[in-house]
Amino acid sequence: MTYPVRANISQNFGDNPTANIMPGSPDYWIIEKFGNYQPDGHTGIDCECEVGTEVHAVADGVVLHIGWMGGTYGDNPWWVAPGFAGYCAVIDHDSFIGIYGHCKDGSAKVTKGARVREGQVFILSGNTGGSTGPHLHFEILPDGYVLNSRFYGRVNPVPYLGAASMGPASITPVKEDTLSAAEVKEIKDHVTATVKGIALAGEAGQREAGPLYSLASKVDRIDSALLPGVAGQRQAGPIFGALASIQGQNAGLSEAIRQMASKPGQPIDLAAVEAAAEKGANTALANLRIVSEG
Fold first, then answer.
1. Which is nearest to 6 in space by CA: 106, 121, 97, 94?
2. 282-291 own/partner pairs: CB under 8 Å, 24+ apart
3. CB within 8 Å of 288: residues ≥ 6 apart
4. Buried b or exposed e, range 41-62, using 16+ CB within 10 angstroms
5. DSSP-derived secondary structure for 211-244
6. Angle made by CA atoms 144, 147, 153, in degrees to the nearest 5
7. What pLDDT score does 179 carry?
8. From CA 157, how far away is CA 70, in angstroms rounded?
9. 71-93, pLDDT tens digit by residue?
10. Does the pLDDT of residue 209 top 80, yes or no?
11. 91, β-bridge pairs
C-alpha cells in the first residue's frame, strides 16, 4: 500500500475525542463547531497539504462514490457524514474500504465504477465540508466492519500504509514478503560483517574518538537506509522481522562504538561489539513480537 498524499500527518487516529469535552475547556470549540461527532476520537488521519495536492489510490480498487454525497450519514453504507466529508471519494480496495475526505470541488479524475491502480492520482486534496484548513482526511473500513461500534468501524490506517499487507484484513502479500529463515540470517550476517569490517579498519590505525564517532554515524546511516519510516509501526511478517532485527543490531553496534570512543587508544573488543549487536537484535525482535501479538 502507498500513502494517499506525500505530506505530514497533522491529526492522528484517535485524537481529540469529543465525548468528555466540557464547556470552558480549551477544546470546546470542536463541540461548538461540529458537535459530538467523534466521541471516541478522530476516525482517520489528516494529512496537511495545500489545496490541489495530488491524491493517490492507496491500493488497487473500484470507485464506489466520488463527489458530493447527498442525504444523511445513514443513507450510505459507510456512514460518511455528507456535509462533513465534503467532496469525497469511497473506494473498495478489495479487503477494505478507503474513504478520502475534504477533496477539492470538481477535481475527480475518475467516475463511479472506475478501476484504479495503487499509486494512481484520481482526485486532488481540498478544503471542503467540515474542514478547518487544507488537508486530506483518510479512513479505512476493514472487511467485517461494524458501523455501530467504536470509531464507527474505522481502524488506524498508519500501521498499514507502506506495508505489504493489511494483516488481519488479508490483502494478498507481495511476492517479495516471503523471506526464508536462511535469507533472514544472510541479511543479518552481511550487515554485521560490513560493520565489523569498518571497525577493523578503524582499529588498524585510527583509534581516536573522532573516527570512532564517524563510524557510529555510518552505522546510523545504514540503519536509516534499511528502515525509513518503519520504526514504531513494524508489521508482522518475515521481511519486517528481518529489518527489525537489523535495526536492533545497528542500535547495539552504534552504542558499543560510542562507548569505545570514550576510551581512545584502547583496542576494539570485537566480542563486545558482537554481544551488543546480538542484544540489540534480540530486543528489536522481542518488540516486534509484542507489536504483532498485541
1. 121
2. 282/248, 283/248, 283/251, 283/252, 284/244, 284/245, 284/247, 284/248, 284/249, 284/251, 285/241, 285/244, 285/245, 285/248, 287/234, 287/244, 288/234, 288/236, 288/240, 288/241, 288/244, 288/245, 291/234, 291/236
3. 234, 236, 240, 241, 244, 245
4. bbbbbbbbbebebbbbbbbbbe
5. HHHHHHHHHHHHHHHH-TTTTT-PPSSHHHHHHH
6. 65
7. 55
8. 26
9. 998 899 999 998 889 999 999 99
10. no
11. 63, 98
- Cβ contact 246:187 at 8 Å: yes
Q: Cell 474500504 sits at which residue?
A: 97
Element housing 124 (H / E) = strand 121-124
pLDDT in tens, 119-153: 999 999 999 998 989 999 999 999 999 998 989 99
Q: Position 167: which residue type?
A: G
φ, ψ dihedrals at 143, nearest 5°: -55, 140
Kindly report the pTM of this predicted structure.
0.55
